[in-house]
Amino acid sequence: MSSAQGFLNDWVESRVGLGSNISNSRNTSVSYNIKGCWIPLTDNGGRRSLGSREEQGSVRCRRDEDRLGWFPPHFDVSDRMARLVASDPVFRKDNRAMLSRKELFKNTLRKAAHAWKRIIELRLSEEEASEMRFYVDEPAFTDLHWGMFVPAIKGQGTEEQQQKWLPLAYKMQIIGCYAQTELGHGSNVQGLETTATFDPESDEFSFIWWPGGLGKVSTHAVVYARLITEGQEHGVHGFIVQLRSLDDHMPLPGITVGDIGMKFGTGAYNTMDNGVLRFDNVRIPRNQMLMRVMRVTREGKCVQSNVPRQLIYGTMVYVRQTIVSDASSALSRAVCIATRYSAVRRQFGPQDGGVETQVIDYKTQQSRLFPLLASAYAFRFVGEWLKWLYLDVTQRLQANDFSTLPEAHACTAGLKSLTTSATADAIEECRKLCGGHGYLSSSGLPELFAVYVPACTYEGDNVVLLLQVARFLMKTVSQLGSGKKPVGTTAYMARAEDLLQSRCSVQKAEDWLKPSVILEAFEARAVRMCVACAQSLSKFQNPEEGFLELSADLVEAAIAHCQLIVVSKFIEKLQQDIPGKGVKQQLQILCYIYALNLLHKHLGDFLSTGCITPKQASLANDHLRSLYSKVRPNAIALVDAFNYTDHFLGSVLGRYDGNVYPKLYEEAWKDPLNDSVVPDGYQEYIRPMLKQQLRNARL
Ligand SMILES: CC/C=C\C/C=C\C/C=C\C/C=C\C/C=C\CCCC(=O)SCCNC(=O)CCNC(=O)[C@H](O)C(C)(C)COP(=O)(O)OP(=O)(O)OC[C@H]1O[C@@H](n2cnc3c(N)ncnc32)[C@H](O)[C@@H]1OP(=O)(O)O
Ligand SMILES: Cc1cc2nc3c(=O)[nH]c(=O)nc-3n(C[C@H](O)[C@H](O)[C@H](O)COP(=O)(O)OP(=O)(O)OC[C@H]3O[C@@H](n4cnc5c(N)ncnc54)[C@H](O)[C@@H]3O)c2cc1C
């Protein structure tokens, strides 16, 4: 097996030198198997050999029986694509922060074109291509083309429209974006001002619009606009619009298009050409309206199909679901950097002058870091479950069963909100966990934060999305007495009466080790917060007014419900058969840490709703502290299990070999400021100043 195919996991004693290794420090050793790779969990000071994983030729072959069947089966694909990208100089990314916007963007185009060439040459499957794009690790127009333009046509186009447009899109003969947001309207999709007016005379639409989309690359867009026919409005629909000539890339007549300018951070999301688009009486053929939900006849009549009109929002549901899995990736990446560096970094230490303490051994470091590690696993599991839920709802929709659509909407909206907010905060926390060096661009964390943080806004502002969850929850509560049994993620509400009365049974710290106890505490908290909101709402004559007035409380209730989903899916995962000695036990510890840390952070909710007593809260905290000690010996193995190459991590602090300090020094010299010893500007500005002071001194 070549180094490009395998995963190095030889754990050997390495030299103990300040900051030159990643190590753990106590004495147990269990085998650990995660994401299909064999990893010995160790804490015997079992340090790994130096040398980045890409460079190593020695590989321990994985055995099939070591695999965790319940992980997505794509480990091999993912591993192969990661190495392919890491070994290709075109995909180099360590110079991004130094490039001007124009250079940066051109380089992104080069990478996208090169990736496409490799995809064709190597005849990569869709899964392989998607993994390759992931490891290239640079936001680009292709994300929107594959992630939104294609799904919009698939989900909202008729069969005939799919047959016409999809082959062109699959072969990249057209490149598309998703143009929905306007200058004045993003969250409020119904309020879009762009109109598509049907003109029966010429069988064409006309548009006036301002979108956020792709400013420099897309030849086509799915544009969302309010449909007007026969002088009447028929809601927002998607329309395929050609923006640029396929010959010379010039905008078509009536179209003004460009980039909206630099965004947050250097490098970061500026590889993406978010754009401005104006239509001035642009005309498109009638059959370019996506007509799965509603058809417009040649005469301009609207014919509603049997699918619910919410399907027009279907692409957003799809993307929100992918964003939850992406949250786990971004979080695990930041946690991998912070954990490895925390094992390398030493500060203070024994009074007798021995070696200083690894900062990972400080309880404060553990209490900040390990809940984030637990969250990375929790989000991975909930992301897998959400993928399943999405596939399930898609299959049902095809069979004209629309019953689970509201739940799918609530789950994707709520979990997108919960996981992206937590991940953005966590990346920043990881930066702080790395002390001063975390602020260096070469730590990889500032760029990761800048690239990631818009996920809290795009694809639905996180608060707006939680309000959607709250609406769904209030509807569920209001139907409790009507005999309609809540199902799926709200099934626990069927036990509302019991949960409103229940008393937590914890008497000693270990009682918090029972999954049923944890689940019940989270269920009781969510139900009580939802019912309290519903009761407050019922006091308003106008429910919409009440909803606005109580929106902050409703958001809290929605968060409680979404956290319950994550906790319960983690617990469900652990009920499955998990091969590998000690693996289940480690995941159980992470599960408890995830849940008990949330409990600790949201203690106000649990205490004020009477779900637990102050004494039980204090026992939970005691227990949480003891769990950190159990994670500590395996912390490095738990982040190695994410199987990230050094190229993908893009962090000097997170290097696999732990060789942080020499590499930090090396990186510093690469900065263009160090190209010359005396800086440009010395003669103009510094020298005259110094001379002036000299003259003044002489005077
Ligand atoms: C080779 C490479 C391969 C692959 C690449 C793969 C993947 C890449 C994937 C993706 C790319 C990822 C990231 C790219 C980065 C950035 C992309 C960002 C793109 C965007 O931002 S696009 C714009 C997104 N915009 C929004 O999200 C707007 C948010 N607003 C809304 O969603 C809605 O307007 C609203 C829900 C907030 C309110 O809408 P409304 O006013 O119409 O709704 P009501 O509150 O009145 O509700 C009416 C009714 O409808 C229900 N509802 C609402 N939304 C949905 C939905 N989405 N699905 C189902 N049902 C929905 C709601 O519950 C109400 O129901 P009720 O029963 O009547 O109560
Ligand atoms: C990097 C990036 C990429 C993007 N890519 C695309 C793309 O490809 N295609 C596309 O069409 N769009 C895209 N967008 C736009 C994005 O989808 C919107 O910005 C997003 O949906 C938020 O809408 P908004 O900007 O109108 O926010 P606003 O709704 O104006 O939000 C502003 C504030 O108002 C609050 N608020 C709004 N409504 C309510 C309410 N009802 N109750 C309480 N509070 C409320 C919000 O919580 C927020 O605090 C992108 C945005 C970014 C940042």
From TrEMBL:
Family statement: Belongs to the acyl-CoA oxidase family.
Matching Pfam families: ACOX, ACOX_C_alpha1, Acyl-CoA_ox_N
Lipid metabolism as UniProt keyword: yes
Matches recorded under Gene3D superfamilies: Acyl-CoA dehydrogenase/oxidase, N-terminal domain, Butyryl-CoA Dehydrogenase, subunit A, domain 2, Butyryl-CoA Dehydrogenase, subunit A, domain 3
All copies of domain Acyl-coenzyme A oxidase N-terminal, residue ranges: 75-175
Upper classification of the organism: Eukaryota, Viridiplantae, Streptophyta, Embryophyta, Tracheophyta
Protein name per the record: Acyl-coenzyme A oxidase
Boundaries of every Acyl-CoA oxidase C-alpha1 domain copy: 313-474
